[in-house]
Amino acid sequence: MSNQPQKNRLLACLPEAEQERLSPHLELVQMHLGQVVYESGVTLEHAYFPIDCIVSLLYVMSDGDSSETAMVGNEGMVGVSLFMGGEATSGRAVVQSDGQAFRLKAIVLKQEFKRSDALQHLLLRYTQALLTQITQTPNCVSKVMHRIPGTDRSISRKW
């Protein structure tokens, strides 16, 4: 296995046969600090499985402001909307820490998601964990803001 999917902890959870089937489709890419992986409203062409980089997921508001909703490292993937029925996303993904990731074409991910019960189950469980992280983020920010003297306590609600 030249691409060693097990370098990403999410892919490492797949049975070996699934890893071997995905391996030829995984392209090792360099991710650079500040690199925009995808923009809001753009059709996603790839999913990314970080190896040693970190990617921030941002919600983009109508006025252009954004706020971080989650971070993805080697425990996950970037591009969950691809298998959740969407072609585009309402958010932005930006690299926060240099490193490498596996890139997988969207069409391959969709085909494998339909074909493989193991991959489907794993990605849906990951999405559940990601949603939990997204819902916890505002609560954590709110708690921190309440501990800083002189801070406008309503700021955490003005995402």
Automatic annotation (TrEMBL):
InterPro entries: cNMP-bd_dom (IPR000595), cNMP-bd_dom_sf (IPR018490), Env_Response_Regulators (IPR050397), RmlC-like_jellyroll (IPR014710). Residues 10-131 form the Cyclic nucleotide-binding domain. It comes from the Bacteria. One of its GO terms (molecular function) is DNA-binding transcription factor activity. CDD domains: CAP_ED (cd00038). One of its GO terms (cellular component) is cytosol. This is Cyclic nucleotide-binding domain-containing protein.
